[in-house]
Amino acid sequence: MLKDHPDIEGMQQKGFIFPPVEQSIDSMGNTMKPGDPVLKLNGKVFAENELTLNEQLILCECGAVEDEA
């Protein structure tokens, strides 16, 4: 009897090869991964990767704080 590759057996047992990456959603509906740069303002979170430079500057002028997701 042929034996499958260990990755194939793991996928058949678990449903995936590698564990899924946890993602969260910012205040505008964009997905973020842990460690992504974000701007926080008044309890709202904005993914910096999805914002234009002008939007980032406006948020910083309004008092947004840079952080990581």
Structure characterization notes:
The longest helix has 9 residues, at 6-14. This protein is rod-shaped. It is an alpha+beta fold and 69 residues long. Strand 3 (37-41) and strand 4 form a beta hairpin. The strands form two sheets. A three-stranded antiparallel β-sheet has the order 4-3-5, covered by helices on one side. The chain has a two-stranded antiparallel sheet with strand order 1-2. The protein has a domain at 22-68. The protein has helices spanning 6-14, 53-61, and strands at residues 24-25, 31-32, 37-41, 44-47, 65-68. It is built from two helices and five strands.
Instruction: Compute the number of strand runs.
Output: 5
* Rg calculated over all Cα atoms: 19 Å
Oligomer: single chain
Globular, elongated, flat, extended or rod-shaped: what is the shape? rod-shaped
**Mean of all residue-level pLDDT scores:** 89
Number of helices: 2
End-to-end distance = 48 Å
Biggest β-sheet: strands ordered side by side in the sheet: 4-3-5
Q: What proportion strand? A: 15-25%
The description of the largest β-sheet is:
3 strands, antiparallel
Structural class: alpha+beta
Uncertain runs are none
Helix content estimate: 25-40%
Order of helices and strands: HEEEEHE
Blueprint of the fold:
Blueprint: H1 6-14, E1 24-25, E2 31-32, E3 37-41, E4 44-47, H2 53-61, E5 65-68
Antiparallel strand pairs: 1-2, 3-4, 3-5
Q: Short description, anyone?
A:
By secondary structure, this protein is α+β, with helices and mostly antiparallel strands. It has 2 helices and 5 strands; from the N terminus they run H-E-E-E-E-H-E.
